[in-house]
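Dear support,

Our group has been running a series of protein-ligand predictions, and this particular one with adenosine-5'-triphosphate is the one our PI (initials K.S.) wants archived with full inputs and outputs. We had some confusion internally about which version of the output was final, so please treat the block below as the authoritative record. The input we submitted was:
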Amino acid sequence: MLKAPIGILGGTFDPIHIGHLRPAIEAQAALGLAEMRLIPNHIPPHRASPFCSSEQRLAMVALAAAENPGFVVDEREIRRDKASYTIDTLIELRQALPDTPLCFLMGMDSLLSLPGWHRWRELLDHAHLVVSLRPGWQPDYPAEVAELLARQQTQDPQDLHRHRHGHIWLSDNLPIELSATRLRALLAAGQDPRYLLPVSVADYIAQHRLYQPTP
Ligand code: ATP
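Confirmed final output from the archive:
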C-alpha cells in the first residue's frame, strides 16, 4: 500500500515569491499532496551565483513555509557541498521514502529546458512531474519533451497516488507573471514588494538590507 504523494519544489529562491508559492499551494490542493517539501539549492548548476547566501535563502524559505500548512523545508542540497543536481536529490528521497509517490514541481520554463538537465531521462524513474503554467513560456515543446508527454502525461490525479513515479501532470494554476529576477530589480529600485512575497520574507529582506539600491 502506497502512502499519500508528496510535492517537492526545488529552486534558488533568491528570494522565494508568490510565483513559487501559489502554484505549489494549488498543486497541493488539486492533487491531495500530504506534504510540500521546499528544497533550496546550494550551487545552482545552470546559472550565475545567487545574490544572497545559501543561509539567507534558506531562512526566507523557512519563513514562507511556516505560514503554509503542510510545507516543510529540506536542507539537503544546501548541506551537500557540491552542485545541486535534481537527479541526486530524487534518488536520495526515493531511498528515504520507498513507499511514497514523489511529485516534483516545476514551472513551464523548466519543462521546456528539461532536455538540458543532468540525466534528465532518469528523473521520471524516481518521481512524477507536476508542471505549472508560467506566463512567457508557451507549451511549444521541443521534440524530446513532446515525446515524453505523449508517453507519460496523465489527466488523472489518481495516477499520482497509484504509482510512485513516471507520470506528468500539467496544472491549470492561476498564471503568475513574477520571477525572482523581476523582484530583485524592483527591490533594487527601492520599490515596495508588498503582495509579491510573504510579509515575513519582506520583513527579513528589509532587516537584512538585501537586494537594496546601491547608494
Ligand atoms: P530567477 O528569476 O532568479 O531565475 P525564478 O523566479 O525563476 O528565479 P527559481 O528559484 O529559479 O525562481 O525557480 C524555482 C522553480 O519555480 C522553477 O521550477 C520555476 O519554473 C518555478 N517558478 C518560478 N517562478 C514561477 C512562476 N511565476 N510561475 C510558475 N513557476 C515558477
